[in-house]
Design goal:
The chain is an alpha+beta fold. It has three domains: 120 residues, Alpha-Beta Plaits (2-Layer Sandwich); 118 residues, Alpha-Beta Plaits (2-Layer Sandwich), CATH 3.30.70.1900; 216 residues, no CATH class. Helices cover 38% and strands 20% of the residues. It contains 14 helices and 13 strands. Strands 5, 6, 7, 8 and 9 form a five-stranded antiparallel beta sheet that branches. Strands 2-3-1-4 form a four-stranded antiparallel beta sheet, with helices on one face. Strands 11-12-10-13 form a four-stranded antiparallel beta sheet, with helices on both faces. Helix 7 crosses helix 9. The chain is elongated, with a radius of gyration of 27 Å.
Length: 475
C-alpha cells in the first residue's frame, strides 16, 4: 500500500443530505453602499452559525450539482444541500440537523427545511480507474490558488501543491505527489476567473470570493484518481475547510469544449449573421476593399476549400469564435508577452515597462507579414496538444479548411489567420525569451526588445528569415 493509499484508508466521515427552500426573495443582507451577498456566502453564513451552536469539527458544504453562478435566492427556489462532517459521527450529524432546524425557526430567516434528511457514513474509495487518458474537473464553486501571471493559469506543480495541502488538512499526512504523477499536464485555458463581492458579517468590511470556475482538463492524472475522487467530496483549495470553495465534479470521459460551440446550430446561425452583416457594412472603405475581401472570395468555385464560399466564411467564423479565445488565453499564460485584445495604450504600457527594465532596442513585425511563410500543417500537433481530446473533430475541420487555402501559408482574409500565426510564432518567442530578450505581442504585432543591438541582430536573423517583409526598427 502506497503512502497515499494508506492516508486515504484512515479517513472516515459522514454526510448529511437535506433540502432548503427559500421563503422570500432574498435581499442578501443589504448594507448601504455595499454589494449584495452572493448566495454561496449566504449558505456559508448559515453553516457557520449552526456549527457555532453545535460544534462538530470541520465541515464542508455544497449545493449539490449546482454551478454557484446559477444560484438565485428567490421565493420558492429549492436547494439540495450536502454537509460533510470530517470528524463527527452520525449521531453528531443528527444533532447538527436539530440545531439547524432551531436556527431556521427564528425570526427573519428566509429558509425552511423541506422533506426528509438523510445521514450516511462515508469513506473514500480507491477511485474508479480513469475511462480515458484525459479527465475533466468541472468546478462549480471557485477554486482559489496562488498564480503567477494570468489569473487562470494553473500549473501542474501548483495543482499538486493544492492536493498535498488538502490531504494534509484532512488526514494530517504530509505527502509529495510529484513522483506519483510525473506526467501530469494541466489544461487551464477553458475556465474563467471570477470575483464575488461580499461583506464580512463580523467587521462589516468588504472583500471578494476569488477563484476559477468551469472546466479544468488533466492528462496523466490516473495515479491521482483516489485523491481526486476524495476531493470531489471534500473539495479543493487552501482556505477554510468550513467553506464551500473548490467544489468540482469529475467528468470522465472528458467532454470536448470547443466542439460544443462549433457545431451548435444556434452558434452557427450567429456566426452567419455576423459574416453577412460585415459583407453588407456600408462603412467598408472602398469598393476595391469589397472586391478583394468579399466579392473575389465569393466567386471562388465551390469545393476549392479555404475561405471562398459564403458557407466557408461562416465555418471559419464559427471556428474562430470557439478556438480563438482558447489560443489567446494559452498564449497569454506563457512567457512570450502575448496580450489579449490589446488596446494601443496597453501595448504602450508594456513597451514602457520593458524599456524601463533596460530593453532599449526594438524591432516590430506585422503578424500578417508571416502568413505566406507559415505551413499550417505542423499546427495540427499544436492544436491537438492545446485542445481536449474530444475536440478532435474541431481540429479535423480546421485542418480541412487550412488545406483548402487558395495559396501558400495562411489565407489573409480568414479570421483564423492571426490566432494561428501567433500560435506558430510562440516557439520562436520562447526561444528569444530564453536568449534574454523581451517580447510584446498582440494579434497584429510581434515586437522584440533587446538590451543591445546584437540582441536585435540575432532576432532579425531568426525571425526575419520567416518573412520577406522588413521589420520596423527603433532604438
Amino acid at each position: 500500500m502506497t503512502t497515499l493509499q494508506a492516508a486515504l484508508a484512515r479517513l472516515r466521515w459522514c454526510r448529511l443530505s437535506l433540502t432548503l427552500s427559500c421563503t422570500s426573495t432574498h435581499a442578501r443582507r443589504r448594507v448601504p453602499g455595499k454589494p449584495l451577498e452572493p448566495p454561496l456566502a449566504v449558505f456559508e453564513a448559515i453553516v457557520k452559525h449552526v456549527n457555532a451552536r453545535c460544534p462538530s469539527g470541520p465541515v464542508v458544504f455544497r449545493v449539490t450539482d449546482r454551478d454557484c453562478r446559477t444560484l438565485r435566492l428567490r421565493a420558492g427556489n429549492r436547494f439540495p444541500i450536502e454537509i460533510l462532517f470530517l470528524q463527527a459521527d452520525q449521531e453528531r450529524a443528527w444533532q447538527w440537523l436539530a440545531a439547524l432546524d432551531g436556527y431556521l425557526t427564528e425570526a427573519e430567516r428566509n429558509f425552511l427545511r423541506e422533506g426528509e434528511a438523510h445521514v450516511a457514513a462515508c469513506s473514500p474509495s480507491n477511485g474508479d480507474p480513469a475511462a480515458g487518458e484525459e479527465l475533466c474537473l468541472e468546478f462549480l464553486t471557485p477554486l482559489p490558488f496562488m498564480h503567477s501571471g494570468r489569473n487562470t493559469h494553473l500549473t501542474a506543480a501548483t495543482l499538486l501543491q493544492i492536493l498535498e495541502g488538502r490531504i494534509a488538512r484532512l488526514s494530517g499526512t504530509t505527502l509529495s505527489l510529484a513522483q506519483e504523477a510525473p506526467d501530469l499536464r494541466v489544461l487551464s485555458h477553458f475556465w474563467e476567473y471570477v470575483e464575488f463581492p461580499r461583506t464580512s458579517s463580523g467587521s462589516g468590511t468588504s472583500h471578494h470570493l476569488k477563484g476559477c470556475l468551469g472546466r479544468l482538463y488533466l492528462r496523466g492524472a490516473e495515479p491521482l484518481m483516489p485523491l481526486l475522487r476524495l476531493c470531489e467530496q471534500a473539495h479543493l483549495g487552501s482556505g477554510e475547510l468550513a467553506f464551500g470553495m473548490g467544489y468540482y465534479r469529475i467528468l470522465d470521459p472528458a467532454p470536448g469544449f470547443t466542439v460544443e460551440r462549433v457545431f451548435d446550430p444556434r452558434r452557427l446561425a450567429g456566426a452567419a449573421e455576423r459574416v453577412t452583416r460585415r459583407l453588407a457594412d456600408p462603412a467598408l472603405p472602398t469598393p476595391a476593399l469589397l472586391a478583394t475581401e468579399a466579392a473575389r472570395d465569393l466567386r471562388r468555385p465551390p469545393g476549392t476549400g479555404g475561405y471562398g464560399t459564403l458557407s466557408g466564411r461562416v465555418v471559419q467564423q464559427a471556428l474562430f469564435e470557439a478556438v480563438g479565445p482558447v489560443i489567446g488565453r494559452a498564449l497569454a499564460a506563457g512567457p512570450t508577452g502575448y496580450l489579449i485584445n490589446a488596446a494601443p495604450d496597453k501595448l504602450t504600457e508594456s513597451l514602457e515597462k520593458a524599456r524601463a527594465a533596460g530593453f532599449a532596442h526594438l524591432h516590430r513585425w506585422d503578424v500578417a507579414d508571416f502568413y505566406p511563410a507559415i505551413d499550417p500543417l505542423p499546427l495540427e500537433d499544436r492544436l491537438r496538444a492545446l485542445l481536449p481530446l474530444a475536440d478532435g473533430p474541431v481540429v479535423d475541420r480546421m485542418m480541412a479548411v487550412l488545406r483548402g487555402a487558395p495559396g501558400p501559408g495562411l489565407d489573409p482574409p480568414s479570421p483564423l489567420a492571426p490566432a494561428l500565426a501567433n500560435l506558430h510564432l510562440d516557439d520562436v518567442g520562447q526561444y528569444l525569451v530564453a536568449r534574454g530578450m523581451r517580447l510584446v505581442r498582440s494579434a497584429a504585432d510581434f515586437m522584440v526588445l533587446g538590451r543591445t543591438p546584437a540582441d536585435l541582430r540575432a532576432a532579425r536573423a531568426l525571425v526575419g528569415g520567416m518573412t520577406g517583409a522588413a521589420a520596423t526598427a527603433s532604438a
